[in-house]
Amino acid sequence: MIKLHNLDIRTVTLALSLRDCIHPDVDVVCENIYNKIKKYAANLVKYANELENEYSIPIINKRIAVTPISLIGEACTNPDYVKIAKTLDKAAMEVGVNFIGGFSALVEKGCTKGDKLLMESIPEALAQTERLCSSVNLATSKAGINMDAVLKMAEIMKKAAELTKERDSIGAAKLVCFCNSASDNPFMAGAYCGFGEPECALNVGVSGPGVVRAAIENMPKDADLSEVANTIKKIAYKITSTGELVGRKLAKKLDIPFGVVDLSLAPTPAEGDSVAGIFQAMGLEHAGAHGTTAALAMLNDAVKKGGIMASSHVGGLSGAFIPVSEDAGMIEAATKGCLTFDKLEAMTCVCSVGLDMIAIPGDTPASTIAGIIADEMAIGMINKKTTAVRLIPAVGKNVGDKIYFGGLLGEAPVIPVNNLSSAGFVNRGGRMPAPIHSLNN
Predict the structure, then answer these.
(1) pLDDT tens-digit profile of 316-333?
(2) Domains recognised in the chain with CATH numbers
(3) Helix H or strand E segment including 205
């Protein structure tokens, strides 16, 4: 599995509360944040590397997720969220982690002073840092959708892309908008340490789409879908057991609690490590063919059923990711035109997250992006699931061009979006009411 099919631990993420770092002086806040990260994460990378060597299981990323920073900076008499962002980035660099998440705000019912300031600072913060990731929760199944914040985040997404246009608008690739965000998610760009989390915990994100694909390819070609689902469950059990083993060992070394295993099948641009490849193994010509949504629904369900039997502490997002730029099969399908924006949106009804790492023309209006975000928030709100939008409005790029990030972020073709205007709708603003099933107390 490890040598031939890219099985790995995609991330070990240290969730760290920064609530005790609050102070009226932003310089003191920055000092407190820096010292706490250095204290708790000093050995994270070292111990993770030791376990990687001991068990011969690759641990691809080491990450940190902190308390939503809108809360931490709000008490300052002189709030400077960009300064805090730089402090987070500096601490992350010094302890050696790949990413630090939690430059975040939760605004599903409205914004506080700190929320507004953080949101407005996101483009500059992402442009001036290397390892920082940002997220904003815009909706929940209980609260509805904050449409004012949806339009605001569409504008911020475009500005983040503009400020990093010399790097193929990478700023937007580290910014995600959520409905029903998970407070223990170990994956970037949406990881943060939620209010109900302990002082510190170790969360693990597993991977293994290549292993699932290989298992299906080894089955008889006439095996029915019940047999396919059972095979996926068995593989998910093995993958989850591996993730929990490594997570608990690392938590013990760090002397902190073990948190959760996130079951999500996270692909990479590497050949053979693709969720889209699983669809082909099931019998579809390519991701995007009719039947893709059904195949993804079965995959997502089977992964959860197998994983939940292997661990009593499953959390985060847990399912199957469909990021376009981070999945070799998705990249190929989108480049060939097999995978359209509308099909991707349909797939988000049953996948683990949503519209993820999709490059669109840089001149796409903010109102159109707001309409896309609103659609995705509605899917999450109505279906009581986490959905997300991570679009890259690639500045200076048009349909057919490509953007290149390298590493896990990969590359993506710029695909078209609907040219019809959404402006009259999204500019109404206000809060879209929660559905009737929110009244279930």
Answers:
(1) 888 788 889 988 888 999
(2) 11-179 (3.20.70.20), 205-438 (3.20.70.20)
(3) strand 200-206
